[in-house]
Design brief:
With about 350 residues, this protein is of the alpha/beta class. About 50% of the residues lie in helices and about 10% in strands. Helix 2 runs antiparallel to helix 4, helix 4 packs parallel to helix 7 and helix 7 packs parallel to helix 10. Bound molecules: coproporphyrinogen III.
Length: about 350
């Protein structure tokens, strides 16, 4: 391997790597004591995301501790509603709260103010030169449906009952909201790419709420449009899509959206994963609870994934690192994945 080539970019380009590349969703976060200390410096989570010095440090923290193949920009999928003018708060211990959308008027009145996101682009340009040579920088946004679901319900506490009801009873309103989000997200991703991110990931965390035609109309079609728009400006940018809990619909997502790689959650069995791998490069899918537990159970599960899916695979979790995770377990998992059995 050429020393200047980054293993994760090689795999995304279809080359067979010497070893499986890896990173972890939510690798920067509350399980790290240094993250909690940094977090205490910001007056709230939004301020944290939008202060380049803090967000840069948070992005780099896991890279300083672990031998990872990618850093993920420290930000949040809900910065888009914020830039669309929707009131957003992150309440301590409760997660995010948006002022819920009620009618089409509120959609028509939205104006995307990208200047609110300029600090994110500045973070990208600060992180980039600080990364080790082999480590790629991943930018991201939420999938249009997932962001719409948060905007409509305001929180995830009610299983997105209003968003699901829009899908069923007000599909044209939902289409309009998704169109707004596609346009804003494309500009946001292009801004991240212009500033230096080398891969983008689309987090469709609530893909599993929709089935059948609704999944096609509100997940697949908007994702395809979003990727199409980004590729008009940046044809070569590798895209990872994560339609979490899509179950049997992972197949359609892999075939129809245009992603280069598909991230799968921990409920996808390894036999199903092997089938999906015939269609698309995969990323995943160790259960984050096993990472929190550690020990033999984690090792066995990780080795099963590596053996069945590697090395043309991106090793990751099935969802984000949970706050209870001992950082030593992350270090151990990195060793296992790199084949250094201590
Ligand atoms: O390390 C990384 O992965 C990069 C940063 C990142 C965050 N959020 C930081 C964060 C990324 C990629 C996200 C994506 C995100 N945000 C998603 C998609 C992935 C997923 O988890 O399904 C979603 C749904 C959100 C919305 C969001 N932001 C929620 C539901 C919460 C509260 C839940 C929680 O863990 O507290 C957040 C807050 C948030 N975003 C935190 C972090 C590190 C924790 C807040 C804190 O530190 O106080």
């Amino acid at each position: 391997m050429n020393k200047t080539e980054k293993p994760i970019l090689e795999v995304l380009a279809g080359k067979k790597p010497a070893r499986v590349p890896l990173w972890f969703m939510r690798q920067a976060g509350r399980y790290l004591p240094e993250y909690r200390a940094l977090r205490a410096e910001a007056k709230n989570f939004l301020h944290f995301c939008l202060t380049p010095a803090l967000a840069t440090e948070a992005t780099l923290q896991p890279i300083k501790r672990f031998d990872l193949d990618a850093a993920i920009l420290f930000a949040d999928i809900l910065l888009i509603p914020h830039a669309l003018g929707q009131k957003l708060e992150f309440k301590e211990g409760e997660g995010p709260a948006l002022e819920p959308l009620t009618d089409d008027k509120s959609i028509a009145g939205m104006k995307f103010d990208i200047s609110k996101l300029l600090p994110v682009f500045e973070t990208v340009s600060k992180v980039k030169p600080a990364l080790p040579q082999k480590t790629a920088l991943i930018g991201f946004c939420g999938g249009p449906w997932t962001v719409a679901a948060y905007m409509i319900d305001g929180t995830s506490r009610n299983q997105f009952s209003h968003a699901k009801s829009w899908a069923e009873n007000r599909p044209e309103s939902l289409d309009r909201l998704l169109a707004t989000l596609i346009e804003a997200s494309a500009d946001y991703l292009c801004g991240q790419i212009d500033a230096g991110v080398e891969i983008i990931q689309i987090f469709e965390s609530w893909a599993g709420l929709l089935q059948g035609e609704d999944f096609k109309r509100f997940v697949i079609k908007p994702t395809k449009e979003l990727i199409g728009r980004v590729r008009q400006k940046h044809p070569g940018i590798p895209v990872i899509g994560f339609p979490r809990e899509a179950g049997a619909q992972y197949r359609d997502y892999a075939l129809e959206t245009g992603v280069d790689c598909m991230s799968i959650d921990q409920h996808v069995g390894l036999d199903q994963a092997r089938e999906l791998q015939k269609l698309k490069l995969l990323q995943g899918n160790l259960d984050p609870l096993l990472l929190a537990k550690g020990g033999e159970e984690m090792r066995r599960a990780a080795e099963a994934i590596l053996e069945k899916l590697g090395p043309s695979h991106i090793f990751n979790l099935g969802h984000g690192v949970i706050p209870e995770t001992p950082p030593e377990n992350v270090a151990r998992l990195v060793e296992i994945a790199h084949g250094r059995k201590a």
